[in-house]
Amino acid sequence: MKDIAVVGIGLIKWGELWEKSFRDMCVEAALACLEDAGTDRVDAVTIGTMTTGIFVGQEHLDSIIPDYLGRRLTPAIRVESACSSGGMAVRGAFVEVASGLSDFVLAIGVEKMTDISGAEATYALATAADQENEAFHGVTFPGLYAMMARAHMHRYGTSRDQLAQVAVKNHHNGSLNTYAQFPFEVTLDAVKRSTMVADPLRLLDCSPITDGAAAVLLAPVEEARKLGKKPLVKITGVGNATDTIALAHRHDLLRLEAVEMATQRALGMAGKKIEDIDFAEVHDCFTIAEIMVLEAMGVVEPGRGGPATAEGMTALDGSFPVNPSGGLKSKGHPVGATGVAQICEAVTQLRGEAEKRQIPGARSALTQNMGGSGASCVVHILEVES
Amino acid sequence: MKVARHWREIPHRYRMEAVRCLKCQALFFPRRLICPECGNREFKTERLSGRGTLLTFTVTEVAPQGFEDQIPYAVGIVEMDEGVRVMGQITDCDPAHLKIGDRMATQFRRIREEGKTGIIMYAYKFVPDLGL
Amino acid sequence: MVGIVGYGTHIPRFRIKVEEIAKVWGADAPAYKRGLNLNEKTVPAPDEDCATLSVNAARNALRRAGIDPQDIGAVYVGSESHPYAVKPTGTIVSEALGACPFVHTADLEFACKAGTEGLFIALHLVKSGVISYGLAIGADTSQGAPSDALEYSAAAGAGAFIVGSHGVLAELEDTHCYMTDTPDFWRREHAYYPEHGGRFTGIPAYFKHVLGAAEAIMEKTGHRAPDFDHVVFHQPNGKFPVTVAKQLGFKEPQYRLGLLSPLLGNTYSGSSPMGFAATLDGASPDQRILLISYGSGAGSDAFVFRTTDRLLEVRDRAPLVRKQLDEHKVYLEYGVYIKHRRKIRKSE
Question: What is the reported pLDDT for C142?
Fold first, then answer.
C-alpha cells in the first residue's frame, strides 16, 4: 500500500443555498480544491451523498459529476453510507490511490437538502434508520438519539447542561469559521430553552438541514512532493466498521461499537494510540453523539464524556480539542458532505492555516464520520510531515 | 402503494413472531435468516408474550410525514421478558409519567394510513402494564 | 353441551362527560343525563378502530378459553364502523390471533345487532358440528353527529366470545329472533353520520323488537322473568334497557350487572355483548342469563345461557369489564375529543 497525501481541499460556504443546485455545489467545491492543490490532474472521482434520489430525485451521480467538471469519460463511483457517505467517499479515494489503481483521486461530498419540505427531509433522513422496525413506528433521528441521551443520563448521570455545553462549544468554534452555516455563539440558556424536538433533545441539540459540498484531492506522497506541497499532510490510517442498523439490536444501547472498532482499526494502521492524537473532528449530529463518540474513541472512560465537556477538555484551548470547525452543529450538516469537510478542517489545522481557530502545534488529527444511530463509522488519521 | 411490503411484515407486526436459533437457542425479533451469534440457518418461530420492561424512551414533538396528527407521542425500547429488545410507540400513557424501568404490556393498534384511500397499517404498540 | 368457552372485552381509556359536550352546544346537560340516564361515554384513542378493539378483546377471550387459535374454525366481526368499506375486518383479526388460514371469516353489519349475529351463527355452527370453536365479536367506534342527541352516547368498545363444546363456561339453552323492516336509524353509503327517526326509534323500533324477541324466547323455553338470574339488553342509553326490563317484569338486581351504558355510552355492536361479558364477570355458576340484542333496521337476537363451574376457574385470566370501565380513565375536553374523532376539517 502506498503512502497517501491530501494535496488539495475545497469548501463552499454552507447554508440554505437557494440559488445553487447540487451540480453547482459539487463544481464549486471541486474547483476550489483543484486550485488549492495547484494541479489539474484528476484520474478518478468518488462521490459521497446520502440520497440525492429522495432530495432532488436524481441518482447516477457518477455520470453527472465528471461531465459537469468538464471531465467526461473519467472513472467515477458514488458511495452511500447515510451520514458517513462523505467519509466513505474519502476512504474509497484512499483505497484507489493506495492500491496503485489511480494517482490523483478527487473525493467530493455533497447534499442538497432544502428543495423539499422539512417533513419530507425528516423522512429522507429516516431512511438511514431501520425502515421496518424504527421509521415504521414514527421514530425520527432526533428520537433515536434522544433515547440514547435519556439512557445515558439514567446510567451515568450525564446532565442537560453537559449536553448543552457541546452546542455552546461548537458554536463558539463555528463563529470563527467563515464557511459555517451558523457562525455565531449560543448560550447555555438558549440551548436549554429552544423548542423541544424529541425529549430531551431540543432544537439547539440537533444539527441543522444544510446545503453544501466539500472536496479533497488525494495522491501518493511522491506525487505530492513533486507538486511541492508544504507542509505535507498525510492520511496514515483508515478504519471502518458497521453495527446493527436498529438501535434496539445493539449489544449495549450506550456503546457505539462501530466507532470503537473503526477508531481502533485506523489507529492500528497509523501505528498510534488515541493519546498520540492532538485533536479530532467528530460527528456531532446531536449533542449526545459527541459525548458518546468521545467515550467510544477511548478519549475518556464510559460515562465521562459529559463531565469532560463541561470541564473544557474538548474546547479549542483544552487538552483534546474536538470540532474546531464548529462541528455539524454550527458548521452545518449537508449529510454527504460532512465527512469530506472534516478532512478539510483537519488538513487546514495541520497546515497551520486555521487562523482564529488554530490549535497551536497540531501535528496529528482524527476525523470520525458516522452513519445513522451509530450503524456505520469511518475514521481517518491524518498527520503532518515535519 | 407499498401493499406487498406491509403485507410481508404481518407475522411480526400482528403476532410478534420471533425466531429461536435451533443450534444456540438465541432469540431474535424480528426474524433472521442467519443467526448473528453462531451462523446457523435453522430457526423455530416463537410468539412473544408482549410483556417487558422499559429501557429508554423519548417523546416526539417534531414528527415525520404521516405522524403529524399524533404529536406528542412516546416511542421507546422495551426489553421483552423473553430477552429480546423491541422498539415501538408507547400509547395510552402520559409521557410525563413514564420512567425507565416501567413494566409494559402490548396491544394491537393502528400505526398509520396511506392517505384517505390507501391501506391501513396495524402493529403492536406498548402500553403501561395496568392489567387492563 | 354447546356454549361460551371464553369471553373478553376491550374498552378505550378515554372518556368525555355529557356536561363537556352540552357546554359546547348550549344544551341542557342535567336534562340529557336524567332523560337518557347517561353520564359519560368512552372515546377511542386515535390509534384505535374496530379492528384493534376486536383483536384486543379477542385476545382476552383467548386467555379465558385457553385454546390454540389454530382450532378456531370461524371468526365473525360485527360492526357499523368497520375500518374499510370493502376489505374484511375479520381477516385482520384472524391473522392477528394466528387462526389463519383454515378459518371461515366474515364481516357482519346490522346496526347494533351485528355482534350477537356472529354469536348466533358461531353457536349454531358448533352445534351442527361444522366447527370445533368459533369467535364472534361485536366492536364499534361509531360517530355521533356533532350537537345531535346521539353525540352524547355514541361510544367505542368491543366484546368477544369464543364458543365451542369443550370447556363451556356458559351453556346455550336456546336462541330466537325477531326481525322486521323498520327504518328507525340508518346511514347511506358515503354519508358521514347516521340519521334517525327521533321518537320513532322508541316504541315501534327498540321496544317492539326487544319485547317481541323476549316474549318469543320465553314462550319457546317456558321460562318467565323470575326464572332468570340475570338479563342483558341492548343499551343505546341508560333509559331504554331499564324501561323494557320493567315492562317484562324484571327487577333491578337482575339487570344490574349488565347495565354499563350510564358510564360506557352506546358501543353499538359491542353494547349487549359487553353487557353480557360484565354479567359473566359477576355471575355465579348454575345461573340462567337472558341476552337480547337490538339492531336498528330492525331486529333482535335472543339467547338463554346457563353458567357452569368453569366460569369461576377462568374468570381471572383476563381483565374484568368493570376494571376496564372504571379504572385509569382519562377525561377529554371537547376540542381534543373532536380532534381524536377526526371531526376537524384539515387541509388536503
Answer: 86
Class of domain A128-209+236-381: alpha beta
Q: What is the mean pLDDT of residues A227-241?
A: 95
Q: What gap in Å lies between CA A256 and CA C1, rounded to an integer? A: 61
pLDDT at C348 over 70: no
In the residue annotation, A26 being an active-site residue is answered as no
- Continuous H helices in chain B: 3-8, 10-15
Average pLDDT in chain A: 97
- Map residue A343 onto helix, strand or coil: helix
Poorest-pLDDT segment among A79-88, B64-73, C165-174: B64-73
Check if A83 is active-site: yes
Q: Are B132 and C324 in contact (CB < 8 Å)?
A: yes
- Distance CA(B78)–CA(B31), nearest Å, equals 17
Please state the rounded mean pLDDT for residues A244-248: 97
C-alpha distances in Å from residue A44, one per residue of A255, C86, C267 = 37, 56, 69
What CATH number should be reported for the domain whose range is A4-117+210-226?
A: 3.40.47.10
Mean pLDDT of A265-276: 98
Rounded CA separation C32/C81 (Å): 25
Residue C167 Ramachandran class (φ > 0 left, ψ -120 to 50 alpha, else beta) = left
- Nearest C-alpha neighbor of A215 from the set A2, A37, A72: A37
Q: Which residue of A has its CA nearest to B85?
A: A248
- pTM of structure: 0.93
Domain boundaries, chain B: 3-128
The pLDDT of residue A229 is above 90:
no
A146 pLDDT exceeds 70? yes
- Which residues partner with C182 through β-bridges? C297
A118 → chain B, closest CA residue: B64
Closest Cα of chain C to B39: distance in Å?
29
CATH-assigned architecture of domain B3-128: Beta Barrel (2.40)
Question: So where are chain A's domains?
Answer: 4-117+210-226, 128-209+236-381
pLDDT (0 to 100) of residue B1: 62
Backbone angles phi, psi at B99, to 5 degrees: -140, 145
Q: Is the CB of residue C45 less than 8 Å away from at least one CB of chain B?
A: yes
Chain A contact present for B107, CB below 8 A: no
**E strand or H helix that includes residue C176:** strand C170-182
CA distances from C315 to A349, C2, C258, C285, C288 (A): 73, 18, 16, 11, 17
Choose among B65, B70, B75: nearest Cβ to A139: B75
Q: Is A122 helix (H, G, I), strand (E, B) or coil?
A: helix
Q: What is the CA radius of gyration of chain A?
A: 19
Domains in chain C: ranges and CATH: 3-169+318-340 (3.40.47.10), 170-310 (3.40.47.10)
Q: Which of residues 45 through 104 in chain B touch A, CB cutoff 8 A?
A: 55-68, 70, 73, 75-77, 85-89, 95, 100
